[in-house]
């Protein structure tokens, strides 16, 4: 007697194991991700504006906007913007790369946030310097978790 599709699916469900809630990064891991991006340098506060709602009902799709004050010339422009979220399973959320031809160092993105946390925006400039900004947000329904 061959197993039915239903029995096969039940067996697969019973033998597979997925953690109910993946571990979230800690603020220390978020700081470690920033340190890795900085490569021993220090980021200065300023020039980077990170806008994210202070209260988010659902962390599955959070709109954020990052702007970096830069003339975007060949000699002085933003090379990259990195987003680090301290409370996500993986702290490094995204990286966006720019050239002088980008015109403005600005981006809008939707990200998933695993919990209430501080989100960092780190801008790497063409002269090798780093600038940073951050925002805190309270997430009432977390994303990045799987409910069972």
Topology of this structure?
Elements: H1 5-15, H2 27-38, E1 43-45, E2 48-51, E3 55-58, E4 62-68, E5 78-85, E6 92-97, E7 106-111, E8 117-125, E9 130-141
Parallel strand pairs: 1-9, 3-9
Antiparallel strand pairs: 2-4, 4-7, 5-6, 5-8, 8-9
Radius of gyration: 20 Å
**Largest beta-sheet details:** 6 strands, mixed
Strand content range: 35-45%
CATH fold category name: Immunoglobulin-like
Please state the second-level CATH architecture.
Sandwich
- Please identify which CATH superfamily we are dealing with: SoxY domain
The percentage helix is: 10-25%
Distance between the terminal alpha carbons, to the nearest Å?
A: 32 Å
Q: Can you walk me through this structure?
A:
It is built from two helices and nine strands, in the order ααβββββββββ. The protein is of the alpha+beta class. It has one domain (22-141): Sandwich (Immunoglobulin-like). The chain is elongated. Mean pLDDT is 85; it is low at 15-21.
Q: Summary?
A:
This protein has helices at 5-15, 27-38; strands at residues 43-45, 48-51, 55-58, 62-68, 78-85, 92-97, 106-111, 117-125, 130-141.
Keywords for this entry:
single chain; 148 residues; alpha+beta; Immunoglobulin-like; 6-stranded mixed sheet; 3-stranded antiparallel sheet; 2 helices
């Amino acid at each position: 007697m061959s197993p039915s599709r239903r029995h096969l699916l039940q067996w697969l469900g019973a033998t597979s194991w997925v953690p109910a809630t993946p571990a979230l990064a800690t603020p220390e891991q978020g700081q470690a991700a920033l340190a890795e991006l900085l490569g021993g340098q220090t980021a200065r506060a300023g020039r980077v504006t990170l806008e994210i709602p202070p209260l988010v009902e659902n962390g599955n799709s959070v709109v954020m906007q990052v702007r970096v004050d830069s003339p975007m010339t060949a000699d002085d422009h933003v090379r990259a913007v990195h987003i680090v979220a301290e409370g996500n399973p993986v702290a490094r959320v995204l990286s966006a790369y720019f050239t002088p031809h980008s015109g403005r160092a600005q981006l809008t993105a939707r990200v998933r946030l695993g919990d209430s946390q501080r989100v960092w925006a780190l801008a790497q400039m063409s002269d090798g310097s780093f600038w940073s900004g951050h925002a805190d947000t309270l997430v009432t329904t977390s994303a990045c978790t799987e409910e069972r």
